[in-house]
Amino acid sequence: MNNGFTSVNLSDEDLELINRFTKSPIDKDSVFTFSVVLCDNEVDRDYERFDEASLRVLAEMFVGKTGIFDHSMKSGDQVARVYATEVLSDSTKRTSLDEAYTFIKAKCYMPKTDGNSDLIKEIEAGIKKEVSISCSVRNVICSICGTDTRHKYCEHQKGKTYGGKICHNVLKSPDDAYEWSFVAVPAQRGAGVTKAYRNDKKEVRELENIIKSLKTADTQISLSSEEALKLSNYIAELERKSHDGQLYRESLKSEAIKFASIALPDMKSGVIANACDIISTEDLVELKSAFEKQAAAKMPVKPQFSHTETKSKNNNNEFKI
Q1: Which of 19, 36, 217, 254 has the greatest number of CB atoms lying within 10 Å of its CB?
Q2: Are 41 and 55 a contacting pair, CB within 8 Å?
Q3: More confident call, 187 vs 161
Q4: Which residue ranges make up each domain of the chain?
Q5: 118-134 pLDDT, tens per residue?
Q6: DSSP 212-225
Q7: Cβ distance 4 to 130 under 8 Å?
Protein backbone atom coordinates (compact mmCIF):
# COMPACT_ATOMS: atom_id res chain seq x y z
CA MET A 1 0.00 0.00 0.00
CA ASN A 2 1.31 3.46 -0.88
CA ASN A 3 1.25 5.72 2.18
CA GLY A 4 1.42 8.84 0.04
CA PHE A 5 -0.43 9.82 -3.11
CA THR A 6 -1.92 7.54 -5.73
CA SER A 7 -3.69 8.43 -8.92
CA VAL A 8 -7.48 8.19 -9.11
CA ASN A 9 -9.33 6.99 -12.18
CA LEU A 10 -12.01 9.62 -12.31
CA SER A 11 -15.47 8.11 -12.65
CA ASP A 12 -18.78 9.82 -13.27
CA GLU A 13 -19.59 9.32 -9.58
CA ASP A 14 -16.30 10.99 -8.59
CA LEU A 15 -17.02 13.91 -10.87
CA GLU A 16 -20.47 14.30 -9.34
CA LEU A 17 -18.96 14.36 -5.84
CA ILE A 18 -16.40 16.96 -6.90
CA ASN A 19 -19.03 19.21 -8.43
CA ARG A 20 -20.75 19.47 -5.06
CA PHE A 21 -17.91 21.81 -4.06
CA THR A 22 -17.57 23.84 -7.26
CA LYS A 23 -19.51 26.96 -8.20
CA SER A 24 -19.64 25.93 -11.82
CA PRO A 25 -19.61 22.32 -13.10
CA ILE A 26 -16.20 21.11 -14.25
CA ASP A 27 -15.36 18.24 -16.57
CA LYS A 28 -12.86 15.40 -16.24
CA ASP A 29 -10.27 17.07 -18.43
CA SER A 30 -10.00 20.18 -16.26
CA VAL A 31 -9.41 18.51 -12.90
CA PHE A 32 -6.54 16.48 -11.42
CA THR A 33 -7.44 13.89 -8.78
CA PHE A 34 -5.36 11.83 -6.37
CA SER A 35 -5.80 9.90 -3.13
CA VAL A 36 -3.80 10.21 0.08
CA VAL A 37 -3.62 8.54 3.48
CA LEU A 38 -4.49 11.25 6.00
CA CYS A 39 -3.94 9.43 9.30
CA ASP A 40 -3.98 5.97 10.86
CA ASN A 41 -4.11 4.03 14.13
CA GLU A 42 -0.35 3.59 14.57
CA VAL A 43 1.51 5.23 17.47
CA ASP A 44 3.25 8.24 15.91
CA ARG A 45 6.50 10.08 16.59
CA ASP A 46 4.77 12.12 19.31
CA TYR A 47 3.63 8.88 20.99
CA GLU A 48 -0.01 9.52 20.14
CA ARG A 49 -2.51 7.61 18.05
CA PHE A 50 -6.13 7.64 16.94
CA ASP A 51 -8.36 4.72 17.77
CA GLU A 52 -10.55 3.23 15.05
CA ALA A 53 -13.71 4.96 16.28
CA SER A 54 -11.98 8.35 16.03
CA LEU A 55 -10.76 7.59 12.52
CA ARG A 56 -14.33 6.90 11.39
CA VAL A 57 -15.56 10.19 12.83
CA LEU A 58 -12.64 12.12 11.32
CA ALA A 59 -13.21 10.54 7.91
CA GLU A 60 -16.63 12.16 7.70
CA MET A 61 -15.33 15.47 9.03
CA PHE A 62 -12.58 15.73 6.40
CA VAL A 63 -14.92 15.61 3.43
CA GLY A 64 -14.76 19.08 1.89
CA LYS A 65 -11.68 20.17 3.84
CA THR A 66 -8.96 22.04 2.00
CA GLY A 67 -5.35 21.05 1.40
CA ILE A 68 -2.63 23.65 2.05
CA PHE A 69 1.12 23.97 2.66
CA ASP A 70 2.68 23.58 6.14
CA HIS A 71 -0.60 24.43 7.90
CA SER A 72 -0.49 27.98 6.55
CA MET A 73 -3.66 29.95 7.17
CA LYS A 74 -3.27 32.02 3.99
CA SER A 75 -6.05 31.52 1.48
CA GLY A 76 -3.49 31.73 -1.32
CA ASP A 77 -1.91 28.49 -0.10
CA GLN A 78 -5.07 26.47 -0.70
CA VAL A 79 -4.30 23.99 -3.48
CA ALA A 80 -6.67 21.02 -3.19
CA ARG A 81 -9.84 19.74 -1.53
CA VAL A 82 -11.07 16.38 -0.21
CA TYR A 83 -14.21 15.21 -1.98
CA ALA A 84 -14.56 11.69 -0.53
CA THR A 85 -13.08 9.56 2.28
CA GLU A 86 -13.18 6.01 3.50
CA VAL A 87 -11.73 4.05 6.42
CA LEU A 88 -9.80 0.98 5.34
CA SER A 89 -7.98 -1.81 7.17
CA ASP A 90 -5.01 -3.80 5.94
CA SER A 91 -5.17 -7.24 7.57
CA THR A 92 -1.69 -8.08 6.28
CA LYS A 93 -0.13 -5.16 8.13
CA ARG A 94 -0.02 -4.96 11.94
CA THR A 95 0.59 -1.92 14.11
CA SER A 96 3.09 -1.84 16.98
CA LEU A 97 0.15 -2.71 19.27
CA ASP A 98 -0.59 -5.77 17.11
CA GLU A 99 -3.80 -4.32 15.69
CA ALA A 100 -4.84 -4.41 12.05
CA TYR A 101 -3.45 -1.31 10.36
CA THR A 102 -6.42 1.04 9.82
CA PHE A 103 -6.29 4.37 8.02
CA ILE A 104 -8.30 7.16 6.39
CA LYS A 105 -7.97 7.27 2.63
CA ALA A 106 -9.04 10.57 1.11
CA LYS A 107 -9.80 11.37 -2.52
CA CYS A 108 -8.74 14.90 -3.43
CA TYR A 109 -8.97 17.17 -6.44
CA MET A 110 -7.38 20.34 -7.77
CA PRO A 111 -7.96 22.27 -10.99
CA LYS A 112 -5.50 21.83 -13.82
CA THR A 113 -4.04 25.32 -14.11
CA ASP A 114 -0.68 26.77 -15.07
CA GLY A 115 -0.11 27.62 -11.42
CA ASN A 116 -0.73 24.03 -10.33
CA SER A 117 1.21 22.31 -13.09
CA ASP A 118 4.48 22.04 -11.15
CA LEU A 119 2.69 20.74 -8.06
CA ILE A 120 0.85 18.12 -10.12
CA LYS A 121 4.18 16.99 -11.58
CA GLU A 122 5.69 16.75 -8.08
CA ILE A 123 2.75 14.67 -6.86
CA GLU A 124 2.98 12.33 -9.83
CA ALA A 125 6.75 12.03 -9.38
CA GLY A 126 6.37 11.19 -5.68
CA ILE A 127 8.12 14.36 -4.47
CA LYS A 128 5.10 15.81 -2.71
CA LYS A 129 4.04 12.77 -0.75
CA GLU A 130 3.81 13.33 3.01
CA VAL A 131 0.89 15.11 4.61
CA SER A 132 -0.38 15.96 8.07
CA ILE A 133 -3.77 16.94 9.40
CA SER A 134 -5.02 19.53 11.84
CA CYS A 135 -7.99 18.64 14.04
CA SER A 136 -9.34 18.91 17.58
CA VAL A 137 -10.26 16.13 19.99
CA ARG A 138 -12.11 16.23 23.29
CA ASN A 139 -10.25 13.40 25.03
CA VAL A 140 -6.57 12.45 25.24
CA ILE A 141 -6.33 9.16 27.13
CA CYS A 142 -3.18 7.77 28.78
CA SER A 143 -2.60 4.23 27.51
CA ILE A 144 -1.23 3.13 30.91
CA CYS A 145 -3.82 4.34 33.43
CA GLY A 146 -6.72 5.56 31.29
CA THR A 147 -6.59 9.14 32.62
CA ASP A 148 -7.93 11.85 30.34
CA THR A 149 -4.82 14.04 30.35
CA ARG A 150 -6.68 17.03 28.93
CA HIS A 151 -8.68 17.35 32.12
CA LYS A 152 -6.58 15.66 34.83
CA TYR A 153 -2.89 15.32 35.67
CA CYS A 154 -1.25 12.00 34.83
CA GLU A 155 2.20 11.03 36.14
CA HIS A 156 2.99 8.76 33.20
CA GLN A 157 5.27 10.17 30.52
CA LYS A 158 4.80 9.50 26.82
CA GLY A 159 7.56 7.35 25.35
CA LYS A 160 8.53 5.72 28.64
CA THR A 161 7.98 2.04 29.36
CA TYR A 162 5.73 0.91 32.23
CA GLY A 163 5.32 -2.79 32.89
CA GLY A 164 6.70 -3.61 29.47
CA LYS A 165 4.31 -1.21 27.68
CA ILE A 166 5.25 2.02 25.92
CA CYS A 167 3.18 4.92 27.25
CA HIS A 168 1.28 6.87 24.60
CA ASN A 169 -1.87 8.96 24.35
CA VAL A 170 -5.01 7.78 22.57
CA LEU A 171 -6.80 10.61 20.77
CA LYS A 172 -10.55 10.15 21.09
CA SER A 173 -13.83 11.94 20.38
CA PRO A 174 -12.87 14.31 17.53
CA ASP A 175 -15.07 17.39 17.36
CA ASP A 176 -13.62 19.19 14.34
CA ALA A 177 -11.27 18.73 11.39
CA TYR A 178 -9.57 21.87 10.09
CA GLU A 179 -7.31 21.09 7.14
CA TRP A 180 -4.60 18.83 5.78
CA SER A 181 -1.19 19.98 4.64
CA PHE A 182 1.76 19.03 2.53
CA VAL A 183 4.71 18.69 4.94
CA ALA A 184 8.31 17.46 4.84
CA VAL A 185 8.33 15.39 8.04
CA PRO A 186 4.95 14.24 9.36
CA ALA A 187 4.41 13.05 12.93
CA GLN A 188 2.82 9.81 11.77
CA ARG A 189 5.24 7.55 9.91
CA GLY A 190 2.57 6.06 7.69
CA ALA A 191 0.73 9.20 6.70
CA GLY A 192 1.49 12.14 8.91
CA VAL A 193 -0.59 13.94 11.46
CA THR A 194 -0.13 17.08 13.48
CA LYS A 195 -2.63 17.47 16.28
CA ALA A 196 -3.94 20.95 16.98
CA TYR A 197 -6.31 21.70 19.85
CA ARG A 198 -8.99 24.33 19.91
CA ASN A 199 -8.35 27.37 22.06
CA ASP A 200 -11.76 28.63 23.07
CA LYS A 201 -14.03 28.56 26.12
CA LYS A 202 -15.26 25.05 25.45
CA GLU A 203 -11.87 23.42 24.88
CA VAL A 204 -8.82 23.84 27.11
CA ARG A 205 -5.51 22.60 25.82
CA GLU A 206 -3.64 20.15 28.01
CA LEU A 207 -0.75 21.66 29.94
CA GLU A 208 1.84 19.80 27.89
CA ASN A 209 0.61 21.48 24.71
CA ILE A 210 0.45 24.91 26.35
CA ILE A 211 4.10 24.63 27.39
CA LYS A 212 5.06 23.32 23.96
CA SER A 213 3.33 26.32 22.38
CA LEU A 214 5.23 28.72 24.64
CA LYS A 215 8.57 27.09 23.79
CA THR A 216 8.07 27.11 20.04
CA ALA A 217 6.03 30.29 19.51
CA ASP A 218 7.79 33.00 17.55
CA THR A 219 4.82 35.34 17.80
CA GLN A 220 2.28 36.28 20.45
CA ILE A 221 -0.03 33.51 21.62
CA SER A 222 -3.21 33.82 23.65
CA LEU A 223 -4.48 31.65 26.50
CA SER A 224 -7.99 31.25 27.78
CA SER A 225 -8.65 32.09 31.44
CA GLU A 226 -8.75 28.37 32.26
CA GLU A 227 -5.46 27.72 30.48
CA ALA A 228 -3.83 30.71 32.20
CA LEU A 229 -4.99 29.41 35.59
CA LYS A 230 -3.68 25.95 34.82
CA LEU A 231 -0.29 27.36 33.80
CA SER A 232 -0.19 29.62 36.86
CA ASN A 233 -0.87 26.70 39.19
CA TYR A 234 1.83 24.68 37.45
CA ILE A 235 4.38 27.49 37.88
CA ALA A 236 3.42 27.86 41.57
CA GLU A 237 3.98 24.13 42.08
CA LEU A 238 7.38 24.35 40.36
CA GLU A 239 8.35 27.28 42.60
CA ARG A 240 7.36 25.33 45.72
CA LYS A 241 9.37 22.30 44.63
CA SER A 242 12.31 24.53 43.76
CA HIS A 243 12.23 26.11 47.24
CA ASP A 244 12.04 22.69 48.91
CA GLY A 245 14.91 21.46 46.76
CA GLN A 246 17.06 24.46 47.68
CA LEU A 247 16.47 23.87 51.40
CA TYR A 248 17.40 20.21 50.96
CA ARG A 249 20.59 21.11 49.09
CA GLU A 250 21.65 23.66 51.72
CA SER A 251 21.12 21.02 54.41
CA LEU A 252 23.28 18.55 52.47
CA LYS A 253 25.99 21.18 52.02
CA SER A 254 26.02 22.03 55.73
CA GLU A 255 26.28 18.33 56.68
CA ALA A 256 29.06 17.72 54.14
CA ILE A 257 31.13 20.64 55.47
CA LYS A 258 30.63 19.50 59.06
CA PHE A 259 31.74 15.92 58.40
CA ALA A 260 34.61 17.08 56.16
CA SER A 261 36.01 19.25 58.98
CA ILE A 262 36.22 16.11 61.09
CA ALA A 263 37.48 13.77 58.38
CA LEU A 264 39.94 16.30 56.88
CA PRO A 265 40.83 18.75 59.68
CA ASP A 266 43.73 20.26 57.70
CA MET A 267 41.52 21.27 54.76
CA LYS A 268 39.96 24.72 54.80
CA SER A 269 36.17 24.71 55.05
CA GLY A 270 35.97 27.20 52.20
CA VAL A 271 37.45 24.67 49.78
CA ILE A 272 34.76 22.13 50.63
CA ALA A 273 32.05 24.80 50.43
CA ASN A 274 33.20 25.84 46.94
CA ALA A 275 33.23 22.22 45.80
CA CYS A 276 29.69 21.70 47.15
CA ASP A 277 28.46 24.72 45.18
CA ILE A 278 29.52 23.41 41.76
CA ILE A 279 28.63 19.72 41.93
CA SER A 280 25.19 18.23 41.28
CA THR A 281 22.81 17.37 44.11
CA GLU A 282 23.32 13.66 43.41
CA ASP A 283 27.11 14.06 43.77
CA LEU A 284 26.61 16.18 46.90
CA VAL A 285 24.69 13.30 48.49
CA GLU A 286 27.61 10.95 47.72
CA LEU A 287 30.17 13.46 49.05
CA LYS A 288 28.30 13.98 52.29
CA SER A 289 27.95 10.22 52.78
CA ALA A 290 31.68 9.63 52.20
CA PHE A 291 32.73 12.34 54.66
CA GLU A 292 30.21 11.06 57.20
CA LYS A 293 31.77 7.57 57.10
CA GLN A 294 35.29 8.97 57.46
CA ALA A 295 34.23 11.20 60.35
CA ALA A 296 32.55 8.28 62.11
CA ALA A 297 35.77 6.24 61.82
CA LYS A 298 37.80 9.02 63.45
CA MET A 299 35.28 9.93 66.11
CA PRO A 300 32.98 6.99 66.82
CA VAL A 301 29.71 8.13 68.24
CA LYS A 302 29.11 6.94 71.81
CA PRO A 303 25.94 7.44 73.83
CA GLN A 304 26.18 10.05 76.54
CA PHE A 305 24.83 7.65 79.17
CA SER A 306 26.09 4.12 78.67
CA HIS A 307 25.14 1.09 80.75
CA THR A 308 28.12 -0.42 82.60
CA GLU A 309 28.07 -3.32 84.95
CA THR A 310 28.99 -2.43 88.53
CA LYS A 311 30.04 -5.00 91.01
CA SER A 312 28.17 -4.95 94.25
CA LYS A 313 30.24 -3.78 97.19
CA ASN A 314 28.01 -5.77 99.52
CA ASN A 315 29.92 -8.97 100.21
CA ASN A 316 27.64 -9.92 103.12
CA ASN A 317 30.70 -9.75 105.40
CA GLU A 318 28.48 -9.19 108.40
CA PHE A 319 27.11 -12.70 107.97
CA LYS A 320 30.52 -14.36 107.58
CA ILE A 321 31.88 -16.37 110.55
Answers
A1: 36
A2: yes
A3: 161
A4: 5-203, 230-298
A5: 888 888 877 776 788 88
A6: HHHHH-SS-----H
A7: yes
